[in-house]
Amino acid sequence: MSDLLASKLFDLTGKTALITGGASGIGLMAAEALMGAGCDVMIASRKAHACEAAADQLNAMGLRGRAEGFAGDVGSEQGVLDLVSEVEKRTDALPILLNNAGKTWGAPSIEEFPYEAWSRVLDVNVTGMFFLTQKLLPLLRRAATPEDPARVLNTGSIVGIQPRGGTAYSYGVSKGAVHHMTTLLSSELAPQHITVNAMAPGPFLSKMMAFAIGTEEQRDAAGKNIPLGRVGTPEDIAGVVLYLCSRAGAYVSGHTIPVAGGLNAAVAAKSASAQED
Questions:
Q1: Which of 121, 153, 196, 251 could bond 170 through an S-S bridge, CB–CB 3.0 to 4.6 Å?
Q2: Which of 115, 169, 171, 251 is flagged as catalytic?
Q3: Contact 149, 93 (CB under 8 A)
Q4: In the chain, pLDDT over 90 holds for what percent of residues?
């Protein structure tokens, strides 16, 4: 493969993306990756000032794409409608939607897990993701062609594949729902030239994971329990995001890709070993 062909596979010049929850963590990592490939990025989350600061930070890096940040809350129907209105003011077509906004909730024990932790987490992680995608379908369809489909990329989690989330019960359940919703949406939207995929990250440094891997010592300790021996880096997110959002992944839809250092296979491998013994 020539260098020219390889560069074209991942080139996103002229594309526009919306990233929810894009002011920090995995969303910010994805924004940097897309901008580096030439994509202009809209960053939305509940706090407008955080999104504006993130956009300024990214624009100061001299990347090929440009970023703008504004408020967008997918935790309610009105919030979704307001976010769609803001997007429609800025573009008449949307080649890439990265549904990354997420909420979690932990408790000391199963007995203490509160009733409201279910609706609040699922409203953001599942319901909001579905209805934002639904309301943005006209813009996604306008950007879609058979040769270059529009892309929907959902952020799931390794805890939606395996029971690794401790007492954050509704979070793990919500991410399992995200993975299944990805398959359902792909089934319906692929014939409309819109691919729908998900990534299922393992431990990455973010506000949500700071309690567990916020220090170097914690990351080293966590790495000992990961088959590949380390927590994830921004480059690991960049690789899967660029693959699924560029020409390289144009023929891929309906998949959830674990980005978790082999955690997705670790329990299965131990079970197989035990059976052999």
A1: 121
A2: 171
A3: no
A4: 77
The number of residues making up the chain comes to: 277
Confirm if 141 and 183 have CB atoms less than 8 A apart.
no
Mark whether 171 is an active-site residue: yes
Q: In the numeric block, which tokens belong to residue 38? A: 């030439």
Order the strands of the 150-155 sheet from edge to edge.
67-71, 40-45, 16-20, 96-99, 150-155, 194-201, 256-259
In the chain the first and final C-alpha atoms are separated, in Å, by 45
d(C-alpha 250, C-alpha 95), whole Å: 12
Give CA–CA dist 255/196, Å, rounded.
8
Alpha helices in the chain (DSSP H): 3-9, 25-36, 48-59, 77-90, 116-122, 129-135, 137-143, 169-189, 210-213, 216-223, 234-245, 263-276
pTM: 0.92
- Tell me how many helices (H) and strands (E) the chain has: 12, 7
Q: How many beta carbons lie within 10 A of that of residue 193, not counting itself?
A: 18
pLDDT tens digits, one per residue of 7-31: 789 999 999 999 999 999 999 999 9
Q: Are 263 and 202 in contact (CB under 8 A)?
A: yes
Q: In 10 A of CB 250, how many CB atoms?
A: 18
Q: Show the CA angle centred on residue 78, arms to residues 23 and 44, nearest 5°.
A: 15
CA distance 126 to 84: 17
